[in-house]
Automatic annotation (TrEMBL):
Keywords: Hydrolase, Metal-binding, Pyridine nucleotide biosynthesis. Belongs to the isochorismatase family. This is nicotinamidase. Transmembrane segments: none annotated. CDD domains: nicotinamidase. The gene is pncA. Residues 3-196 form the Isochorismatase-like domain. PANTHER family: LD05707P, PYRAZINAMIDASE/NICOTINAMIDASE. It comes from Loktanella gaetbuli.
Amino acid sequence: MTSALIVIDVQNDFCPGGALAVSGGNDIVTGINALMDDFSTVILTQDWHPAGHSSFASSHPGQAPMDLITMPYGPQVLWPDHCVQGTAGAAFHPDLRTDGDLIIRKGYNPAIDSYSAFFENDQTTPTGLEGYLKSRGITRLTMVGLALDFCVNYSAVDAARLGFDVTVREDLTRAIDMNGSRDAALTAMQDAGARIAV
Ligand code: VGL
Ligand code: ZN
């Protein structure tokens, strides 16, 4: 089986000091860099929002970050402005190796958020990653990165549903963990058939 490492959203805004900082987000960089040596295919994802994105609380008068609203495609957590295209916050962590094969950007549609590396949050608009992997004969995926309970979770669940053999290296992730979202994510990923490894 041909394998790929998928490195999710290891960007400045998800690391301490960033706009949507995940506690300990920077601690996983060294381990991820080392793990890249074990894979012939490495794919990085990058959360990449236009200014004024509909997932930002600032785009919804009267709403605050972490509020939950209903969008035409379903429930959506509202976030602080983060990973705005071309800003320092959207850049990869400066120590992250970026010599991978493919960088896939997501969340650029102003009206739809995109946690998953495979589909936007409408769960139907593809990013193209499935085709990239399948056309290259890749069947097995290892996932690491940020945040465990959002973008890693949605990516792992979608990948398992698409038939990939998925392992999440939990030690190389960190979670936002709001309202039990970390535990819920671990359950969701396992229920979808992903393996949680440390
Ligand atoms: C993410 C919230 C908003 C993530 C991205 O990378 O997990 N979370 N945008
Ligand atoms: Zn985002």
